[in-house]
Write a structure and sequence with these properties.
The chain is an alpha/beta fold. It has helices spanning 5-15, 17-30, 32-37, 43-50, 54-66, 82-85, 95-109, 112-118, 122-127, 131-137, 139-151, 159-162, 179-187, 202-212, 247-260, 282-295, 302-311; strands at residues 70-73, 77-80, 169-173, 192-197, 218-222, 235-239, 267-272, 314-322, 326-333.
């Protein structure tokens, strides 16, 4: 068999992708972008600041410059690029995403063969417990996870463009740190909202919403969406919270939202990534496997969602596309349900 050089190079790039990811993770773990931003621009200065060996830092920086993460050299000093600047320890950074992926997620992917062969979570094999149980016990990881979710919120500003929230009472189910609800309330000054999530999310959500839209327009409620959701609202939102759960559990959440709706004019917005089996792009397909590794879950097709909504007495009214290959599905309660 003869393999051309271009194919060989492509295969090598694929095989060594994990090495690149771990090199980037190590730089963030050592805080190299922050040290360089502070003016420590040589390997000696970076080694002294981080406690790492100078030779190790030198060899790491050589690769990261080649990858475009940093620029410069030992003679002229290293400088941050747009990539490393996105990893600084500042608000809205991708730093916690890099740390989460480089530690817990990377460990889970070490069990990819088992996860794919059995369609079960690699994380549970690695850590001996479910991912969300782990988050409930490890506050640092839970914080990194929430910051990671927030870092993927590039589409939040576009949600008010695809649905009119004016004057509505909105419940964000599984609303996390309150970023989406805050965005919606800022865009619709006469709307009011309830953030509904597990109790351990309340402090961060309260702080964010107090600083952005004010707590006079928001109610914070702790609870379990699989048991019940706050009643009497005009709009219920489920944003990126369903992929880790089985179909029957998701239908149960939909039913809870349907029962809680104020009247027939209420709507449910389901915001998630969809997968397609033909002509898929890399990002949705990759995140689908990521869900398998971490929670044993999966991304779904539009047909899957439509069928689950139907089981819960909801009809898919329309679909709207959002950035980052994200889709909003707007569902109405079926009068006979």
């Amino acid at each position: 068999m003869t393999v051309d050089v271009r194919t060989i190079r492509h295969v090598v790039d694929l095989i060594t992708g994990g090495w690149r990811a771990q090199a980037l993770y190590t730089a963030v773990k050592l805080g190299l972008p922050d040290h360089i931003e502070a003016g420590r621009t040589t390997c000696g200065e970076l080694a002294e600041s981080t406690g790492a060996a100078r030779e190790g830092v030198h060899r790491l920086m050589r690769l990261l410059v080649a990858m475009g993460v940093f620029e410069g050299d030992e003679r002229t000093g290293y400088r941050n690029t747009a990539v490393s600047a996105a990893l600084l320890d500042v608000p809205q950074s991708l730093r916690d995403m890099c740390l989460l992926h480089g530690e817990e997620y990377y460990t889970a992917w070490g069990h990819a063969h088992h996860a794919i062969s059995t369609v079960s979570s690699g994380f549970e094999v690695a850590y001996g417990q479910r991912f969300y149980d782990y988050l409930g016990k490890d506050k640092d990881t839970a914080k990194r996870f929430q910051h990671t979710m927030n870092a993927g919120n590039m589409f939040f500003d576009h949600v008010p463009e695809i649905f009119d929230f004016s004057g509505r009472n909105v419940v964000d189910v599984g609303g996390g740190g309150g970023h989406l609800l805050g965005t919606i309330l800022a865009a619709a000054p006469d709307a009011r909202g309830t953030l509904f999530d597990r109790e351990h999310m309340m402090p961060e959500a309260r702080a964010h919403l107090a600083a952005t839209v004010g707590l006079d327009r928001v109610r914070l409620a702790g609870g379990d969406m699989f048991s019940a959701v706050p009643s009497g609202a005009d709009v219920y939102i489920l944003c990126r919270v369903l992929a880790g759960w089985a179909d029957d559990a998701v239908v149960g959440v939909f039913e809870n939202c349907r029962r809680a709706m104020a009247d027939s004019s209420s709507r449910l917005l389901v915001i998630d990534r969809l997968v397609v089996d033909e002509g898929s792009t890399v990002l949705p397909a990759m995140w689908d496997l990521q869900l398998l590794m971490i929670t044993g879950g999966r991304h779904r097709t539009l047909g899957n969602f439509t069928a689950m909504l139907d089981r819960a007495g909801l009809d898919l009214e329309r679909v709207a596309e959002l950035p980052m290959e994200t889709t909003a599905m707007i569902a109405a309660p079926r009068p006979s349900a």
